From TrEMBL:
Signal sequence coordinates: 1-24
Family: Belongs to the SusD family.
SUPFAM superfamilies (UniProt xref): TPR-like (SSF48452)
Name of one Pfam family that matches: SusD_RagB
Recorded GO CC terms: cell outer membrane
Ranges where the RagB/SusD domain occurs: 580-739
Main location: membrane
UniProt source species: Tangfeifania diversioriginum
Subcellular location: Cell outer membrane
Coiled coil: none
Protein name listed in UniProt: SusD family protein
Record key words, sorted: Cell outer membrane, Membrane, Signal
Tree of life domain: Bacteria
Length: 739
């Protein structure tokens, strides 16, 4: 459908004259012949597309060089200050979808929802919006018919420049929509305002809404049809989507419902040839520019779009080194962003999750012996082999010279020995391969790949080694007490794991489909005992169960599991509860975004990512359609809306098990489904405000209002303040109410 060509690169020719100074003589010719002016930039027809590219790059980059060194705006750090990163902060950190572990400046005000007019992050968002508007105004001003006539530009290149001008108007409308949504009553400037030093007049939300609406309606017929322009540039479908979003929120913006108008433009998009990406994860990977679902992206490129904002920020901030950055296609994580437990509750039942999750127990410090061998590196225990100080241990739980542990051997015929300490001073092998140990004896051998239960009795100098495969058994499992449900071994993590449907009843762990080796939990404390008590399952459902062997104590976890593939969380080493916002391991981490392609290749650079940000995509249109129908808009129907919603859920679940019935399609369902489908895509704040759940106390989440349990907040926070410095500087401005 689309020409899959990315607009990338940093275009330094662009508009350095969009902001004017107090110099009155704007016609002064520069003394330095190398100084770039609008006159010599626009005299060359080939430069117009370069300047247009700078306008698009204004959403993706923060300056002229990237990632730092020539910031477009002074003040905030260039990485923090990039447009998309600033927008993500404002739209996500203020909601249940994200918290950040960094305490830079006043960033915490976002997640505590107690900001004021001096917050530098809010000011940065405001100035990014208006810098972008000033750039687009300058380009629009320089591409009038009169200007092109003056320069003798005609023919095909003139037609192309006229199209660029409409795209610039779209980008200006996009930023003015951000201003409507976040700041409401703002200064207003267009290309018609004379370049020079003056204080812009303030408009109001109603008038700005009318302006943006009319601009988009004027632009619509003059842009290309969907898919007929380079990927990354705006076409008619981008205009339709922005109109639909403007109308969906009209009741908030101008106190007038415009759901019928929303449906009008949703229907245009739905008939434009877009289709859902078959795999949800692929929408957030390094080759997502191939997707036929994305309507308008903010493009990223690891070689040419170098920024510490954008999707580079989204991916790196969500990862810490204990999550293995290689799996995300990056060279290291920043250990910043996670989600609240209330957001996790959109996918999982929090009460069941809390009751079922058994905490991982750290190993008790029992006496140990060491098991060095030629298997250590291949099995992932250490970088080198035959290294007692880096080898797995066996432990004596009763301190009686009887040692036990489970060791993974990645290769058949792996050799090993036992040592008394982390050195070779005292070691044992088996000269006759008869199960009897001798000092300095021959190497022992694990004949097959697998995890072995190894017991050593140093009182009688005996040992045993039994290969084990584990499963679940019990009346809570599908096989009852007769047939084990097999578990899979994760060799990297050394964990046995299974996702299983469990009914009411109980289960145990057992090895090799027999009862010789079985584990239960006598105290329901997460520590397993041989022949121990059955483990109860009070709430039927799907569970992810993990068995941690190795060195005693042996432990397990069981947590409710969602079949919804959109719920992409890293939970190992993370807590559900956020006791400390500034501790990354508090709160589940998110694995939704990656700098890895859909076929498993790492992006072009491991520091800056290739993954584009889908600002508008088809799934959002499905959800807007359904919501507008439920809110009384005409031009759609509930049966069609239900079909669209179930298309999203069939993709998420991989089958029809997640489908809903017509009676389940409610506004309460829609706000939660939008969270499940669109989280971390810069939508949540706007959605919560539209549903009346952002301010007030009807919906609380962790740390809302700077209280761990959450609290009601004032409705003034539905709109951000105009930065105090701007109100002081421009006497035409009146601060938003309450600030």
């Amino acid at each position: 459908m689309k020409n899959k060509i990315k607009i990338t690169g940093i275009f330094v020719i662009a508009v350095l004259f969009a902001f004017t100074s107090c110099i009155n003589d704007l016609d002064t010719v520069p003394l330095d012949k190398d100084v770039v002016t609008s006159e010599n930039v626009y005299a060359n027809p080939d430069n117009y597309k370069n300047v247009l590219a700078k306008l698009y790059a204004g959403l993706a980059l923060s300056g002229q060089e990237g990632p730092a060194g020539a910031n477009d705006l002074s003040g905030l750090d260039e990485g923090f200050g990039q447009y998309l990163r600033a927008y993500w902060y404002a739209q996500e950190l203020t909601t249940d979808e994200a918290v950040v572990a960094w305490n830079d400046g006043n960033l915490r005000d976002y997640q505590e929802m107690d900001w004021g007019s001096n917050n530098e992050f809010i000011a940065n968002m405001y100035y990014r919006v208006f810098y972008q508007i000033s750039l687009t105004n300058e380009f629009i001003r320089e591409t009038t018919p009169a200007k092109l006539d003056e320069r003798g530009i005609d023919g095909t290149i003139r037609s192309e420049i006229e199209l660029y001008r409409y795209e610039a108007r779209f980008l200006r409308a996009l930023s003015y929509w951000h201003a409507i949504d976040m700041f409401a009553n703002v200064p207003f400037v267009t290309e018609a305002d004379i370049v020079g030093s003056f204080f812009p007049e303030q408009t109001n939300r109603n008038d700005l809404f009318a302006y943006v609406e009319q601009e988009l309606l004027d632009i619509e017929p003059n842009l290309t049809a969907p898919g007929e322009v380079e990927y990354g540039r705006a076409d008619q479908a981008a205009v339709w989507t922005l109109l639909a979003k403007l109308y969906l929120n009209a009741e908030v913006y101008i106190s007038q419902p415009k759901y019928t108008e929303c449906l009008t433009y949703c229907n245009k998009i739905l008939n434009a040839g877009y289709s859902l990406e078959p795999e949800y994860q692929h929408l957030f990977m390094a080759d997502n520019h191939r997707s036929n679902e994305i309507i308008f992206p903010i493009t990223q490129d690891g070689n040419n779009t170098k920024t510490y904002g954008g999707v580079t920020f989204i991916i790196r901030a969500a990862v810490s080194d204990h999550m293995d950055p290689d799996k995300f296609g990056i060279d290291g994580g920043w250990a910043g962003t996670r989600v609240t437990k209330e957001f996790v509750g959109k996918f999982l039942d929090l009460e069941t999750l809390k009751n079922a999750r058994i905490p991982y127990k750290s190993a008790v410090e029992y006496p140990v012996i060491y098991v060095p061998g030629g298997y250590q590196a291949a099995s992932g225990y250490s970088e080198g082999d035959w290294a007692p100080d880096a080898a797995p241990n066996l432990a004596s739980v009763n301190s009686d010279n009887n040692y036990e542990g489970y060791i993974w051997f990645a290769d058949a015929n792996s050799e090993y020995k036992f040592t008394e300490g982390p050195n070779w001073d005292v070691n044992w092998g088996d000269d006759n391969a008869d199960g009897t140990l001798e000092a300095n004896g021959a190497n022992l051998v694990a004949p097959e790949t697998g995890m072995y239960k190894i017991n050593v009795n140093l009182n009688d100098m005996l040992y045993t080694s039994v290969k084990t495969d584990w499963g679940l058994i019990g009346d809570a499992t599908a096989g009852g007490w007769d047939n084990s449900t097999p578990m899979e071994f994760d060799a990297e993590r050394k964990v046995w794991t299974v996702v299983a449907e469990l009914g009411s009843g109980a289960f145990k762990f057992r090895a090799n489909d027999g009862w010789d080796i079985n584990l239960g939990d006598n105290d329901t404390d997460g520590i397993l005992d041989y022949g121990g008590a059955d483990i109860p399952v009070d709430e039927p459902g799907k569970y992810k169960i993990e068995l941690y062997l190795g060195t005693p104590d042996y432990t397990y976890t069981m947590e409710q599991f969602s079949s919804d593939s959109r719920g992409m969380f890293h939970t190992d080493g993370q807590t559900l509860e956020i006791e400390d916002m500034f501790e990354f391991t508090n709160g589940y981490a998110v694995t939704k975004w990656k700098n890895i392609t859909s076929d498993g290749n790492i992006g072009s650079d491991i520091e800056y990512v290739d993954t584009d940000f889908p600002l508008f995509r088809l799934a959002d249109v499905y959800l807007m359609y359904a919501e507008a129908v439920l809110r009384g808009g005409t031009g759609g129907d509930e049966a069609t809306a239900l079909g669209y919603i179930n298309m999203l859920r069939e993709r998420a679940y991989g089958d029809e098990n997640g489908n809903i019935a017509s009676g389940d399609l409610t506004l309460d369902f829609i706000i939660d489904e939008r969270a499940r489908e669109l989280y971390w895509e810069g939508q949540r704040r706007t959605d919560l405000i539209r549903f009346g759940l952002f301010s007030g106390g009807d919906y609380l989440w962790s740390w809302k209002g700077a209280v761990k349990e959450g609290r009601s907040i004032d409705a003034k926070f539905d709109i951000f303040p105009i930065p105090a410095a701007d109100v002081i500087a421009n006497t035409n401005l009146t601060q938003n109410p309450g600030y």
